[in-house]
Write a structure and sequence with these properties.
single chain, 442 residues, mainly alpha, 19 helices, globular, disordered C terminus
Length: 442
Amino acid sequence: EDIAAHAPAPAEYGKRLLSADAQALPREAVNAKLISLIASGAVALGVLLSGFVIREPAPYEIYMAALIAVWALFGLRISPAIAPLATLLVLFNIGGMVAMTQMPEVLETPLYLAVSLFLGFTAVFYAAVTAARPQLLRPIFLAYAVSAVVTSLFGIAGYFRLFAGAEMFTRYDRAAGVFQDPNVFGPFLVLPAIYLLHRLLTGPARHMPLVALPLLIVMTGIFLSFSRGAWGLFAASAVLLAGALFLQSLSGRFRLRMVVMSLVAIALVALALIALLQIPGVADMLSLRARLAQDYDSARLGRFARYAIGFQLALEKPLGIGPLAFGQIYGEDTHNIWLKALMDYGWLGFAAYLTLTVWTLAAGFRLLLRDRPWQPYLLCVYVVYAGHVGLGTFIDTDHWRHFYLLLGLVWGAIALEARHRRHRRPVFPHAPPVGKTAAEFG
């Protein structure tokens, strides 16, 4: 009776419940929004730091190690669709550990393998977080574009000696930005350049000036790196992007726009190149770097000769000779990711890396033109990743931080597609086929 006496009337009780729900919903929505903003900012900051690697260990490694650890504590989930990526990367590094046993002295090899394994974890991390939160793709690409513009400005300033001490942003009279090597600086800039190019080709006309300026800065950075690999990578990726967009659209108007803008872009690039060639030193460096074969390629123990030596050695040493050992023996590294896999990671590592590459290319290609919210991001990443696979024939890419970002983003899209297909299953997946009774179905 006492409880009944103090209990609210049914109508009043209902009002209180509605009021409580009305207060709880906004609070939950605000908390979810806050968590989403924190997650986006944390991942975007990591991508931003990937453009500043002038010394090692770089801030990127320290930050990403902490971010992955914190995210794992709060529920980093690796979906079954991402399991092949994680498994093959682990097998690749196990091959390196086995190859290390073939070395008379390990020297800095454990640290090298630790970095390889860590970079593999970053690929799995990017795949997992984008598969769980596809809304992270936009801040990732924007952060990458900002990082590319900033490091390109440093590289341009260094090449033209725009202020005292700016030469620290160059290597071998080539722009290197905030990187140790212009041959890594140039390829790093290609994905943001392709992303900006995609936005230029598909976005509204009123946004073109806002996109064209950062694209021009990044393309200048690519050119002044004087990296033949970066030049070819950007050209091939741009052609693949334009071709895919042309095939994807059924609109004659859009296709005409693509053709016109492509012709205008080629004309502008030609004019910019002519203008740059008027600057003293640029023409000489361009003529030097434009040769297909440099002296260090065709010398007696040059790059091509080392390829033949290395592949012959791989037949004799199936376990490999150990990470970094090839460079110590022959004076230069392999400069070929396939040969490096054989020498540094053995046949096991080579098989894992080859399987991962073929799997990534095949699975990504199947999704390339499907109408999905994340398709524009996948298209940009895929064409650049495919270009990196070709580039790996002439340079080692196993410790390029942005390469593992590309790999992770492709696998994130693969996992998103798997989730999309899973959610589109029929409500009654075990219903009998049409024309059969339940008894006949069993």
